[in-house]
Please model this.
Amino acid sequence: MFNTDLSMSEINNVLESAMLPPVKGLNNVTAIYYRKYLFQKLLSGFKWTLPELWSRDYFQYVLFGYGFISIFDSGPDGFGVVPQRCGISGYNLFWLPRKAIVNNPLLPSTHELTIGEDCVVLKINPNYTGVLDIVDYYAVKLAMITADIESNLINSKLSYIFTVKNQTTANAVKKLYDQIAQGNPAVVVDKDLRNEDGSSNWEVFQQNLSSNYIVSDLLQDMRKVENDFCCKVGIPTTNTEKRERMGEAEVTRNDVETETLITGWLERLNDDIAKANKMFPGLNLKVERRWDPDESDSLDTRTVQLR
Model:
């Protein structure tokens, strides 16, 4: 149980310092690729109306990646009302932060602002965290499946066994195989690479390729993982998995499931946006879903036949 005397920021520190599993699948190029892809896909689900001079990329990346962003008037020597990444401190009656601290070298000075009086802090989650934990969870899964696909593509090929007399001949055979594997249309072979009777000194090590080839299944699993991610973050998707022993496959769009997280995100954002628009007249900040669930088909479940 948490100590009830801890502030919200201290509780976050406890959560973030928890021990990680021994396998860290995010520390590779493939996982980083999927992290960027999924994060941008998540951002595509939101449609923002922002002031003309605001950077949309900065605003979204700080808000969703960092978890919160401050909006305040930078003063007559600043840039007007701006969004800025901030630190939070203090706590109120409900153990929520009271202060927002902004430090930007282009601003006249460090701003220590009182939330609700001098600034408004937009947040995604109630504990002031972002969405990268969700993104990373699915990025690791997709990276692991990708690694399995590449490994299986290699292992499902034919293998060859060469019998050679010495290391010099072995190196020549390796070079020969590399040229063939690269798709060269004509490869010249020294006659000394053949046996004394002129026969070939290699044989095919053949496996049951059909039973070892699982790339199709892995690609389907990858699609399931991405669909599950879309459901989590409120992006409409379809379930294309064909049930066993069914003559017709059902493709089900579950609108209820896709509302789980995005509803809470939008409720908190709209509450904070209303405060910002009231504090700074003329700001006209607005957010909405890019895909409105009310404009979808009247039926909650759509069934089609897969040919």
Notes: The beta strands are 46-49, 68-73, 81-84, 87-89, 99-102, 111-114, 119-123, 159-162, 202-205, 286-289. The first strand starts at residue 46 and ends at 49. The chain has two domains: 8-132+259-295, 134-237. Residues 232 and 260 are 7 Å apart (CA to CA).
